[in-house]
Design a protein that fits this description.
Helices cover about 60% and strands about 5% of the residues. The chain is mainly alpha-helical. A three-stranded antiparallel β-sheet has the order 1-2-3, with no helix packed on it. Strand 2 and strand 3 form a beta hairpin. The termini are far apart. The relative contact order is 0.05. It is found in: Cytoplasm, Cytoskeleton, Microtubule organizing center, Centrosome, Centriole; Cytoplasm, Perinuclear region. This is Cyclin-F. InterPro entries: Cyclin (IPR039361), Cyclin-like_dom (IPR013763), Cyclin-like_sf (IPR036915), Cyclin_C-dom (IPR004367), Cyclin_N (IPR006671), Cyclins_cyclin-box (IPR048258), F-box-like_dom_sf (IPR036047), F-box_dom (IPR001810). Pfam families: Cyclin_C (PF02984), Cyclin_N (PF00134), F-box-like (PF12937).
C-alpha cells in the first residue's frame, strides 16, 4: 500500500490510493481559561469577603446573584464586618440595625452612643424609646464582648446634667427599676450599675446596693465582679495565716478566669512572699510565664495603617500634647499609658486624615480618664482643649468610633503594671522608681519601642534607672528568678532607651520649640525631680552587658578536668549499658582510609609537639573562650594568644569528636588495646616497620 504524509499548518494526515484520509495528530492550540472571582469555592470567597468594610460589602452584593445569596445568607460576615468611619444616620439606619441584629458589636455600640447623645438619629422616636434603645444596645454589646471586661459604665457614669433631661441618668434609673422588678439583666449591666453607683453620693443604703449588684454579677460568672467582692472582703478580714492562705486561694481562682486586675494583684502578693500553698519554684515559674507572655505594641509602619503621609514626628507632637493635657488635669501615668495604647491600636486599624489626628488623641484621653480617674474630661471640655478645632458632635462620634473599633477592649496591661511588680521583687528608693517611670513615659513618644514587649520595656526602664541612680547591683539574681529576664534579654531595649530618650534631642514643633512635656512633668517635687537625674554614659551600659556576656561564656565553656575527660572518653568507646546484649563491649569501627591518611602525619610528629598538644587539649575550650572574651572587651582583638600559638600544632594532630569530648586518634588506638578491640594486623605491622 502506497502511503504518503501530507503536512500542513493545521494538521497531519495520512493519504491512501483510495483518497480516504483520517487525522493522525491534531496540533494542540493553547486555550487560556479565564478564572473569575465567582468561580472560587465558597470557603475561599467568604475568607476574602471577611476583610471588606461595610460599604465594599454592600457593593459586592449588587454584583451578581451568587454574591448576593452568599453574603446575605452568611451571618458571620455581617457580624464581623468593619464599620470604621461610619456613623448612624437616617439614610443608613436600616443598614446599621440589620448589622446589629446579626450580632455586630461595632454597630451596637455606635447605635447606643447615637441614641444616648441623640447624635445622627431622627426625631421620630420618643424620649422613652431612646432610653430603652440605649439600654438594649449596650446590653447586647456587652453580651457580644469577648474580653469579659464591662465598658458600658464609662459612657453613663456621672457627672450628669441637673435639668432632669439627661439620658445617662434616665438609663441608669431604668436599669434600677428593672432590677427591682426582678427583670433579668446580664452580668455586665449589673456590674456597670454598681460601678456607676460608686461615683454618686456614698450612702449606707446605696453601698448595700453596690455589693448586691456585684454579687448578682458574680453569680452569673463575671470574674471582675468577683474580684471587687474579694477586695471588699479584705478590708474586714483578719490578718492571720489561715485567712491569708484562703484569700490567696480565692484570688488565684479569680485570676485563672482571665481578670487582669486580679492577676496583677496575685503576682503582687507573690512578690511579698505570700505564696499560699505553692512552692517558690512554682510561683517563680508562673511569674516568668506572666512576664514573657506580655503583648507587643504597635510599631511603625503598621502604626499608621500604611499611610505614608503620617510620620513619627507627628505622633511625637500629638503625644507630647496629650502629656500636657494629663499634667494640666493631674491625671496619673497609667491614664497616659492607656491613652497611648488606644491611639496606636486605633490608628493601626482605621484610615484617618491628618486633621483628625488630634481628635483621635483627645478622645482616647477622654475615654481612658473615665476608666482610671475620678476627675474626668467632659466632652465639651475636650472640644475646648483643642482650641475649638473640633465640635461637640465630632467628639461624640469619635468616642463611639474608638470604643467600637476596639470592640470594647480598652483595658490592657501597660509597662507600669509590670514595673510596679518588679519594684516589689527587689525594692528600690522612691527616686529610682520615679526615674524608671520617667523613662517609661519617654518611651511612649517613640514608636520604635512597639517592637518590644511591654514587660521587656518595664524591666529595661528599671535597669537603666538603677544605673542612673547608682542603686546597687543593676540586675540581681532575684530579678531574673521572678521575671525570667537576664541582662542579655534586656541589652537591646536598654541601649535603645539610652539612645532615643537621652542622647537624641527632642522633636521641635513648627516654632522650633523643643517638646519636653514629659521632662517638665517629672521635674516636679512630687515626682522626686526624676527628670533632673543625669543620664550615664553609654560606655557604662556596654561594660555591664559585656561583663555579663563574659561571665556567661565562661560558665558555658567551663574547663573539664582530666578525670572528667577520661570518663567521657571511656563512655565514648564503651557500649551503652542500656543495650540488652550479651556482649560486654562493642568494637569501635574506625575507617581504614582515615587511619591510612593520618598515619604518616603521626609518624613524623615529634614527641615534644605531641606532649604540647595533649596539654592544650586537656586544658579545655573554656580557657580559650574566656581569654577571647576578655580580649574582645579590653582590646577589641578577634583572636587570643592561645589560639595563635597552637594554630600550627592543631593541623598535625587528627582528632575525633563525640559531643563536647575531643579524643586523639593515637589515644583511640591505645584504648582499643585496653578494651580488647582487635586492630588490623597488617596496619600494626606496617606501623612497626615505619617506626
Amino acid at each position: 500500500m502506497k502511503m504518503r504524509i501530507q503536512k500542513s499548518t493545521s494538521r497531519k494526515v495520512t493519504t491512501q490510493k483510495c483518497s480516504f484520509t483520517h487525522p493522525v495528530l491534531r496540533s494542540m492550540t493553547a486555550h487560556l481559561s479565564v478564572l473569575k472571582l465567582e468561580d472560587l469555592p465558597n470557603e475561599m470567597l467568604l475568607h476574602i469577603l471577611s476583610f471588606l468594610h461595610l460599604p465594599d460589602l454592600l457593593s459586592t452584593v449588587q454584583l451578581n446573584t451568587k454574591f448576593k445569596q452568599l453574603i446575605e445568607s452568611t451571618k458571620s460576615l455581617w457580624c464581623n464586618v468593619s464599620l470604621a468611619g461610619k456613623w448612624p444616620s437616617p439614610e443608613n439606619m436600616d443598614m446599621f440595625e440589620r448589622v446589629a441584629e446579626a450580632g455586630n458589636v461595632e454597630a451596637k455600640i455606635k447605635l447606643a452612643q447615637a441614641y444616648l447623645y441623640k447624635e445622627g438619629v431622627s426625631e421620630e422616636k420618643s424620649s422613652q424609646n431612646y432610653e430603652m434603645l440605649v439600654g438594649r444596645y449596650f446590653s447586647e454589646a456587652e453580651n457580644s464582648n469577648s474580653t469579659s471586661v464591662p465598658f458600658t459604665w464609662l459612657f453613663i457614669r456621672p457627672p450628669w446634667s441637673t435639668n432632669g433631661t439627661c439620658r445617662k441618668a434616665k438609663t441608669f434609673l431604668r436599669w434600677k427599676k428593672q432590677n427591682r422588678h426582678k427583670e433579668t439583666l446580664n452580668s455586665s449591666v449589673l456590674f456597670s450599675m454598681a460601678k456607676i453607683q460608686t461615683f454618686l453620693e456614698d450612702e449606707e443604703e446605696e453601698q448595700s446596693n453596690i455589693l448586691q449588684w456585684y454579687q448578682q454579677a458574680a453569680d452569673q460568672g463575671l470574674a471582675v465582679a468577683k474580684y471587687h467582692l474579694w477586695k471588699h472582703s479584705q478590708a474586714s478580714q483578719p490578718k492571720d495565716a489561715a485567712h491569708l492562705l484562703e484569700s490567696i486561694r480565692q484570688l488565684r481562682e479569680i485570676a485563672a478566669q482571665g481578670c487582669l486586675e486580679s492577676q496583677v494583684r496575685l503576682y503582687s502578693e507573690y512578690t511579698k512572699g505570700n505564696f499560699g500553698d505553692l512552692s517558690r519554684s512554682t510561683v517563680t515559674s508562673n511569674m516568668q510565664r506572666f512576664f514573657q507572655s506580655s503583648r507587643k505594641g504597635v510599631s511603625y509602619p503598621a502604626l499608621f495603617n500604611g499611610h505614608h503621609s503620617f510620620t513619627n514626628s507627628m505622633r511625637y507632637i500629638l503625644l507630647d500634647w496629650l502629656v500636657e493635657v494629663a499634667t494640666l488635669k493631674e491625671f496619673s501615668s497609667q491614664t497616659i499609658h492607656l491613652a497611648v495604647s488606644c491611639v496606636d491600636r486605633y490608628l493601626s486599624v482605621c484610615s484617618i486624615t491628618r486633621c483628625q489626628l488630634q481628635l483621635v488623641g483627645i478622645t482616647c484621653m477622654l475615654i481612658c480618664a473615665r476608666l482610671e480617674e475620678d476627675n474626668i474630661i467632659t466632652i465639651r471640655e475636650a472640644a475646648w482643649l483643642t482650641d475649638g478645632t473640633y465640635k461637640y458632635e465630632e467628639v461624640v462620634r469619635m468616642m463611639g468610633d474608638v470604643v467600637a473599633t476596639l470592640r470594647g477592649n480598652l483595658k490592657q496591661l501597660t509597662a507600669l503594671d509590670y514595673l510596679e511588680l518588679l519594684v516589689q521583687v527587689d525594692p528600690v528608693s522612691k527616686k529610682c522608681e520615679y526615674v524608671a517611670k520617667y523613662i517609661a513615659e519617654l518611651s511612649l513618644l517613640h514608636s520604635y519601642f512597639g517592637t518590644f514587649r511591654v514587660s521587656v520595656i518595664a524591666a529595661s526602664c528599671l535597669l537603666l534607672a538603677r544605673v542612673m541612680t547608682s542603686e546597687g547591683c543593676p540586675w540581681s539574681s532575684v530579678m531574673t528568678e521572678f521575671s525570667g529576664f537576664g541582662l542579655a534579654d534586656l541589652s537591646s531595649c536598654c541601649l535603645a532607651l539610652q539612645k532615643r530618650c537621652f542622647e537624641k534631642p527632642p522633636v521641635v514643633d513648627h516654632r522650633d520649640v523643643a517638646l519636653t512635656a514629659v521632662k517638665q512633668r517629672f521635674a516636679e517635687s512630687n515626682r522626686y525631680c526624676a527628670s533632673s537625674v543625669p543620664a550615664k554614659n553609654v560606655e557604662m551600659l556596654h561594660t555591664i552587658f559585656a561583663c555579663e556576656d563574659k561571665v556567661r561564656r565562661v560558665r558555658r565553656n567551663d574547663p573539664i578536668t582530666p578525670s572528667h575527660r577520661r570518663k567521657k572518653e571511656e563512655s565514648f568507646l564503651l557500649m551503652s549499658p542500656s543495650r540488652k546484649s550479651r556482649r560486654t563491649s562493642r568494637p569501635v569501627h574506625i575507617h581504614e582510609d582515615a587511619v591510612e591518611k593520618s598515619r604518616e602525619e603521626e609518624v613524623v610528629t615529634p614527641t615534644h609537639e605531641v606532649l604540647d598538644q595533649e596539654g592544650a587539649i586537656v586544658e579545655g575550650p573554656g580557657s580559650s573562650s574566656s581569654r577571647r572574651a576578655h580580649d574582645i572587651i579590653q582590646a577589641g582583638s578577634s583572636h587570643s594568644h592561645f589560639e595563635n600559638e597552637n594554630v600550627g600544632k592543631q593541623k598535625s594532630t587528627r582528632t575525633l569528636r563525640s559531643g563536647s569530648c575531643r579524643v586523639k586518634l593515637q589515644d583511640v588506638k591505645n584504648r582499643v588495646v585496653e578494651v580488647g578491640i582487635r586492630s588490623s594486623p597488617r596496619s600494626l605491622k606496617r606501623k612497626t616497620m615505619e617506626s
